[in-house]
Amino acid sequence: MADYKIIGEVTIGEAVKIEDYAIIGLRPKNFESAEKTVIGRNSTIRSHTVIYANNIIGERFNTGHNTIIREKNIIGNNVSVGSNTTLEIGNRIANNVKIHSNCIIGEYVIIEDYAWIGPSVITLATLHPPCPKYEECARNNPIVIKKNAKIGGNVTLTPGVTIGENSLIGAGSVVTRDIPSNSVAVGNPARVIKAIDELDCKEPYFSRPYEWEEEIRKG
After folding, report:
1. Surface-to-core class of residue 2, CB atoms within 10 Å of its CB (0-12 exposed, 13-18 middle, 19+ buried)
2. Strand ranges (E), 120-179
3. What are the sequence ranges of the domains in the chain?
4. How far apart are CA 90 and CA 18, in angstroms?
5. Pairing mode, strands 191-195 and 183-186
6. Going by C-beta distance under 8 Å and a sequence separation of 6 or more, which residues neighbour residue 114?
7. Which residues contact 116 (CB under 8 A, 6 or more apart)?
8. What does the alpha-carbon distance between residue 192 and residue 74 come to, in Å, rounded to a whole number?
9. Which strands form 116-117's sheet, in the order they lie side by side?
């Protein structure tokens, strides 16, 4: 028998696998809402994951080990969140999003369909250290990662920036301003260096990077 803990009103879909030492429905300090926690069918919650109360999570959701998901997140279908990653409160994550290990996704971040977040990415959701209005501030200045954008490993996104659709942020970059759609940006501060269509594949498998994604989505 699995050794995990379910707290309060939690709805778990069919064929959900929950590994040992996971906690689902943990109530944060000063918890007032009576809303349920929902996890969609065919999901896998790996060991030592903690999912707080008041989260709505879709089907085929997967966590790594030691994943922490704070309250008020809305997460779509076919989303994975890697080991040792923390989702802070109030994020909106669409379908088919991949978030790798060791990431910190700050409050009220918006991540659209098919976005890819590399390992050790940090989103800084508040403009300065916490104040009594930090949640309101984060909601009014959200980081937005648009559809099919890709964020390389060890990237830092600063408050309020938008990463445009299909854009790529190179590893180790610090993004301090909006990045247009279909762009490649690198550096500290990150600057656009070329268009996505100007990228070349180093191996002869595809005529251009990400060509294979179009075939997957057609299927």
Report:
1. exposed
2. 122-123, 144-145, 150-151, 156-157, 162-163, 168-169, 174-175
3. 5-218
4. 23
5. antiparallel
6. 95, 96, 97, 147, 148, 213, 217
7. 97, 98, 149, 150, 151
8. 31
9. 17-18, 44-45, 62-63, 80-81, 98-99, 116-117, 150-151, 168-169, 183-186, 191-195
CATH architecture of 5-218: 3 Solenoid (2.160)
Residue 31: is its pLDDT beyond 70? Answer: no
Q: Which of 106, 113, 114 has the alpha carbon at shortest distance from 161?
A: 106
Instruction: At 156, list the tokens.
Output: 């830092």
Please state the separation of Cα 109 from the chain's center in Å. 8
Amino acid at 217: R
pLDDT in tens, 103-150: 999 999 999 999 999 999 999 988 777 778 878 888 888 999 999 999
Separation between Cα atoms, residue 62 and residue 60, nearest integer Å: 6
Q: Which are the catalytic amino acids? A: 128
The three-class DSSP label of residue 191 is strand
pLDDT-derived band at 81 (thresholds 50, 70, 90) equals: very high
Q: Three-state DSSP class for 198? A: helix
DSSP annotation of 140 reads H
- Compute the distance between CA of residue 175 and CA of residue 67 in angstroms, rounded to an integer: 25
Rounded CA separation 76/48 (Å): 22
Residue with tokens 């109530």: 27
